[in-house]
Amino acid sequence: MNNYARAFQEEIASLPRRPRLLFHACCGVCCVYPLLLLDQYFEVTVFYANSNIYPLEEYDHRLAELERYLRMIIDHDISLIVPPRRSPSFLSKLAPYGDEKEGGRRCELCYGMRLEEAFAYAKEEGYDYCSTVMSISNRKDARILNELGAELSAAYGVRYLPADFKKNGGAALNEKLNRLVGLYHQTYCGCPFSMYNGVPGTPGAVKS
Fold it and tell me: I need a labelling partner for 56 at 20 to 30 A (CA). Which of 17, 25, 100, 154 fits?
């Protein structure tokens, strides 16, 4: 099994300078610990590319909480990019897999589309690295995320920063810091299918 937490440490140990990192983020609550960690080594720009998040009110709420957290850490020079939300076309691509449980093909497709949007922007704007916060979640498969990142890195010519932010106590630290800052904690991953845990019409939202 690949150790992405170790790969992260090896990568940052080899950094010759403070490179520019485009960091895909899905919400504020997932970012508390990862951003504080990454800001030690990179010039970080947060990229809120999440056309999966439904409904619009939820999308806006998560964005507002992310912005609120960035204002809290004002001593850290972290900027935010919000690309256009393209929910109907994005969700139409997930719909054939709507009946799957969370973590299946639908989720892998969703990760890939959001990461590809980030890599395309990173290439266009000349970023050195691209990565995602999603591995902080116990419901996200770090292997899938890192394999997608490696594939997109080869396709776009932008280095991918491997990571598994939940490892080495990262998930516990993120939860502890969140209790201090009090950010909104969503009860489902984001898409309308995840609102029902992959069983349309059946209540049963789960934490992302």
Answer: 100
Measured distance CA(69)–CA(86) in Å, rounded: 24
SS3 44: strand
Q: Report the predicted TM-score, pTM, of the whole model to 2 decimal places.
A: 0.91
Q: How many CB atoms lie within 10 A of CB 195?
A: 20
Question: 136 near 178, Cβ under 8 Å?
Answer: no
User: What is the per-residue pLDDT across 172-197, written as a single tens digit (0 to 9) for each?
Assistant: 999 999 999 999 999 999 999 998 65
**CATH number among 3.40.50.1240, 3.40.50.620, 3.90.1300.10, 3.30.559.30, domain 4-196:** 3.40.50.620
Contacting residues for 25 by C-beta, under 8 A, at least 6 apart:
31, 46, 47, 48, 66, 132, 133
Give the SS3 label for residue 47: strand
Neighbours of 6 (CB within 10 A): 13
- Our separate counts of H helices and E strands in the chain read 7, 5
Please give the Cα distance from 93 to 111 (Å, whole number): 12
Nearest residue to 126 (alpha-carbon basis) of 82, 147, 155, 157? 157
